User: What shape does this take?
Amino acid sequence: MNTEYIRLEHGGGGKLMRLLIENLVIPSFSIKKVEGGTGLLEEDDGAVIPIENGYLVLTTDAHTVKPLFFPGGDIGKLAVCGTINDLAAMGAKPIAITSAIIIEEGFPFSQLKRILDSMNSTLMEVGIPLVAGDTKVVEKGGIDKIVIATSGIGYTKDPIFDSRLKPGNLIIITGPVGRHEIALLSQREGLKFEIQLESDVKPLWSVVELALKAGRITSMKDPTRGGVAGALNEMARKSNVNIKIWEDKVPVDEEIRGIAEMLGIDILETTNEGIMIMGVAKEDAEKVLKAVKSTKYGRKASIIGEVEKGEGIVILETSTGGKRIIEEPIGSPLPRIC
Assistant: This one.
């Protein structure tokens, strides 16, 4: 394996990306967090910055999805949802977002307006503003059409970290797995199916807000690049626990499951943009599940597993009664997925 150059897999959200961050990115910076808060070393969905009566949470992300427009969304909606969901994963109420847009010379004004309108509609749904931004144009061929980077700031009195799972916690997932990647794959490859596939891209603060009010959530993660397999492995490894997942409890729409099996894709490794994984105190799990299922985006939520003492592995109990370890993905098989 050539280790001198960046490969597409280094951006896939799996083991190669983690090693790139841990071995090169983080060691390159001398100061890695604000005093009293968290930052690069924690490798969470955002940084926690203490203020007088609580904490600010700051997150940033870049978006290079291909195609730019896909069933259920576009790069603009994806950028805003991704940032809102990273804040929500840390228990933070979104306050505002900033955006930097890099545009290739020759990009149509009509498509740019469509993307901006999509960003605005998503921000309006959540009720937060875009407060600052930057726009750059590069020469033809300098990038592929358009790249959007967004940052978001939120507030919480009690931050949630992906490293705080406890033995006895139950695992809730807020919706079906696999819709985003399968929808993009079908669009990108021109695959035709009898049903209309749509990405699950959604802003999840409304779901998380009710869940937080319903019971004690110990840990959260949105399973984007690397999918459910990547997110669960990260949570288990950081928390130094094992996670046992029940295969027949994981919500997957039947048409998505069938397409994934046909294409030879592990549904647990697919990228998602509209679901959240929650570690919940056992005594509160049913209350949290009920709250999540009462929301527009959480109707198919399910308790899919439990946390046990262990050494940081994820175990799948299959529908036939067998067991297998869910490995951390190496990298996404589909580049430019988000």
Observations:
- The mean pLDDT is 94.
